[in-house]
Amino acid sequence: MSEHEIQIEQHGAVRLLRLNRPEALNAFTTGLLGQLRQALEAAAEDGATRCVLITGAGRAFSAGQDLSDPHVAPSRDPGAAPKDIGHLLEHFYIPLALRLRSMPVPVVAAVNGVAAGAGASLALGCDLVLAGESASFIQAFSKIGLIPDCGGTWLLPRLVGRAKALEMALLGDKLKAAEAAALGLISRVLPDAELQDAALALAQKLAGMPTRALVQTRIAIDEAMKLDFEPALKREAAVQSQLGFAHDYLEGAAAFLDKRKPEFKDR
Ligand code: T3D
Questions:
Q1: Which is the closest atom of ligand 1 to the Cα of 67?
Q2: Which atom of ligand 1 is least distant from the CA of 121?
Q3: Less crowded by CB within 10 Å, the N or C end of the chain?
């Protein structure tokens, strides 16, 4: 399957989405942003898909916003009115970030090269982030007079703390995959040649797990970061109560007792 700037492959219950503008390091045009959101929407609606894997074609994950895209590229005409970048964020990046963060299945990023600007935000917004050893993360925004967007200001301090978030965002230096893993920005680093197979294997493992519980875990952790301890305990109990009535818990517990492999179905 292909939507031009996104390649879509189905591997069993895993929907693989490959950003596909390798000649521009998969920089985001409005076309690519729109196609990626549609592809996420389609994966969310497909009951047979239980995990999404996002990666890039060629030598990069994504270089962020395509700075030559006519929607944002500064006009060379001194008389022309400046373009409103906020419009692009409102209509493309915010809906994309919200769609990604609220997927009803786990989402894995396989970062196969540089992830810069909004490309880094997209990767870091996924549930698990794997990177090849030659991959890197660049908060490129400050170099062009902008702030981190597509969720960057929310994600960075939560992932690495305020001091490192500010260092990365202010300086915009390249952070190698191994450093990113050591900081807790990403989950794992793999040899480049093993990245795609390892990411697919991880996505397939997640696809075989109790999807609804995995997604509720993501939500519970995000919510707990906003709560005091006791409200977090109560929220856990309320969600656990609901999950306890669901098929997957009954099946998981019964399979354990029967010493057999569980068959999870809930989404
Ligand atoms: O409107 C808004 O800006 C609002 C939204 C903001 C969200 C953002 O994402 S802001 C941040 C935008 N991204 C950047 O500023 C990164 C710009 N790119 C780079 O700094 C470098 O390309 C990289 C560090 C990512 C990689 O460097 P390198 O040396 O490996 O590759 P390269 O030679 O620079 O790039 C290869 C080609 O991709 C090149 O095209 P060419 O010369 O072969 O025809 C280059 O122009 C193109 N490319 C790379 N990044 C972008 C891009 N084209 C358009 N937009 C890009 N962001």
A1: 55
A2: 9
A3: N
Which tokens go with 141? Answer: 């925004």
Which residue, judged by its Cα, is nearest atom 39 of ligand 1? 24
Domains of the chain: 6-207 (3.90.226.10), 211-258 (no CATH)
Shortest-distance atom of ligand 1 to CA 64: 9
**Residue 8 in contact with residue 39, Cβ under 8 Å?**
yes
Question: Using a 6 Å CB cutoff, which residues line ligand 1?
Answer: 24-25, 27, 63-68, 72, 85, 88, 114, 116-118, 138, 140-141, 144, 146, 149
Q: What is the pLDDT along the chain (267 residues), one digit of tens a residue?
A: 445 899 999 999 999 999 999 999 999 999 999 999 999 999 999 999 999 999 999 999 999 999 999 888 888 888 888 889 999 999 999 999 999 999 999 999 999 999 999 999 999 999 999 999 999 999 999 999 999 999 999 999 999 999 999 999 999 999 999 999 999 999 999 999 999 999 999 999 999 999 999 999 999 999 999 999 999 999 999 999 999 999 999 999 999 999 999 999 999
**DSSP-derived secondary structure for 5-40:** SEEEEEETTEEEEEE--GGGTT-B-HHHHHHHHHHH
